[in-house]
Every structure is written in C-alpha cells, then in structure tokens.
Amino acid sequence: MHRLWMIFAQAVTISVAVLFVLSTLKPDWVGERPELPAITIQQAAAPAATPSGKVAASYADAARAALPSVVHIFTSKEVKSQRSPFADDPLFRHFFGDRLDNRPQQRASGLGSGVVVSPEGYILTNNHVIEAADEIEVALNDGRKLPARIVGRDPESDLAVLQIKPEGKLHAITFGHTEQLSVGDVVLAIGNPFGVGQTVTMGIVSALGRSHLGINTFEDFIQTDAAINPGNSGGALVDAAGNLVGINAAIYSRSGGSLGIGFAIPVSLARNVMEQIIQNGSVTRGWIGVEVQAITPKLAESFSLPSSGGTLISGVMRGSPADRAGVKPGDVLLAVEGRKVNDPQAMLEAIAALAPGRKAGFELRRGKEKFDVRVEIGRRPALSRGD
C-alpha cells in the first residue's frame, strides 16, 4: 500500500510540473490566451496639403518663383588715405614737395542684396547697403551686370529704392500680404550671404511686430529663424508660395553669423515707403515738435498721475505745431485721433502716419484734468545725414 501511494504522489508531482512548463512556454496549448487591456494609439496627422491638394514636401516652386527677382548689389566708395604725419614738416616738404598729398585714393567695397519690384527696373533694398556709395552695380539672376542709380532712400526705415535700365525683360516679384502672415508660417530668405552667390534658407515666422530694438526709428519687424547672414541685407523674405512678405534687414548675433534671430521689414511698410520714394523722391511723415518719454510707475507717482498710461511730453520745440496749439512740457499725451498711445514708439508712429497740413485731434492730461486740442500737423524734418 505504501508503494502504491508513493507512485501516485510522484505521478501527480510530474503532471503538475509538466503543466507549469507548458503554461509558461506554450500557454496557447493549455487554454485560451488572456485578453490584454486595449491600448489607444494616436496617429500623427497627415502633413498639411497645399491648395492644389498636394502635400508640401518641397518649396522648390516658391524658390523658383522668387529667385529671378532677387539681385546682388555691389557698392564702392572712395576712401581718403590717411594723411602722412610728416606732410606738414617743412624739411620733408622741401625734399618731397606735394607728393605726400597726391597719393592715390583707396576704394572700399561692399555687398548686399535687393529685390526687383517692377518691370521698370525699380529695386528695393536696405538703406545701409547703399549708404555713402558713389558707385553701385547690380548683378541679375541671369548673369547680367548693370549700373544702378539711387532713386531715393529713407534712413528712418532703413529702406532705399534703386533703378536700373536693362535691355531685356525683368522678372518682378509678386507682393504678398503681411496681415495674413502668422507665427509658425514657413518663410524663405533669399540673398547673397558673404558673397558666395544666390542662396535660399528656410525657417518659420518666429514673431511679428517686433519693435523697441534700437535698429531703426520706425520698427515693426518680422522675426524669423531662417538663416540671414551678412550680404543677405536687402534680400527677399518670401512665403511658401514665393510672394514677398519682407525685406531682410538685420540679425541678432554675437559672432557675425546667423544665430536663428533675423529681422525683416514687413512688405506693407516697405511698399508704402517705396511708392512715396518713386513718386516724390522721399518719404513724408507727420511731426508736431515734441520730445517724449515713457511713463514709469515712479514717474506716474512723482507727477501724481492716476495711471502709467500715455506718454509724458518732456519738451516742446519753440514755434512748432505743438507749441502753437498750446501743448506744454509735463502734459501727458493719451491719444492721437482716438488711437490710444501707451509708449513713445506708438506716439511716434501715430503722428508720423498723419498727413502734413491737416489738423488732428490730440487727447491730453494736464495735472488731473483731461482736455482735447487740435494740432496742425507739420512735416517731419529729414535726419541730419544729408537727407
């Protein structure tokens, strides 16, 4: 009896061991597989399609549309050689005469980019590209090189217009709409960086309406991470369809190369300046003759102002439109033609947009009293750079 019990126990032990091995290695042999919990997988959305229904896998069409309109600009100017320290020495003049004063003058060269904006040969570029140049040559996309003349320039927006007279046809760029541009839109920067030749870089719109950068008097920059380098200045910033949305103007850099922070002048501002220059040779802006400063909380407290809104008028030019209208230092400008003014830059832009000769309404605060005045807008004086 004891022998039979031992055989039974060993058989049960072996059977349990076999079942354990099978359930571990081949669970489907011993029964239905346990159902695993459901896992939800979110698939990535398909790439956005273009208006034609095709996925935008390449921006070759946009580049192809804009490249023929972007030109290279080569400038040169005469630089006076440094006067010899011995030029005024009587002994040296006795032996060398005036030869020390008759040395050949040196020429400095520069380069940049520009955009053909009309079949009549008008080219839009940056003022700093052609400033002080006495010779300007434009190299077209097809290899032609032509002399250019300055139609006009506007240092306060850093824009200038050139004109060339080609024998053949010119490919003018198509203007886009800055107001339709959004942060995140793809843009292409086209120009001639470092003189290596025509180059296209891609990025996105990083920000809109950048101002208070201290680059120009009037600032409303498009910020982009598309690589912009020296030589790109004056070139085109185009959208994904190849339409002009900005003129490349400046970069933020500690090394001189691109760090992914570039700035372009929006085409809305560039077009307005360009049309005024072509029609009148210069840009006309409004002016009332005041000096202003931002109202900080500390200033608001010292002047007993109810808030820090508005702009403090710190000075009034004698005989200016503001002086004739009774505006005084210490007044706070609150609004121009109903448009609220919260800082000096906003005031500058609001007044500059007014046509000289017309009367405009200004809302002011003097002490605790608010009042309105009508000021006849004058013409903003040109910068003291020969303009």
TrEMBL record:
Recorded coiled-coil stretches: none
Active site (catalytic residues): 128 (charge relay system), 158 (charge relay system), 233 (charge relay system)
Domain PDZ: 266-354
Annotated InterPro entries: Chloro_Bact_Ser_Proteases, PDZ, PDZ_sf, Pept_S1C_Do, Peptidase_S1_PA, Peptidase_S1C
Keyword vocabulary terms for this entry: Hydrolase, Protease, Repeat, Serine protease, Signal
Transmembrane segments: none
SUPFAM superfamilies xrefs: PDZ domain-like (SSF50156), Trypsin-like serine proteases (SSF50494)
Signal peptide: none
One Gene Ontology molecular-function label: serine-type endopeptidase activity
Residues noted as binding substrate in the record, renumbered to the chain: 128, 158, 231-233
Biological process per Gene Ontology, one example term: proteolysis
Family of this protein: Belongs to the peptidase S1C family.
Record protein name field: Do family serine endopeptidase
Record organism: Zoogloea oleivorans
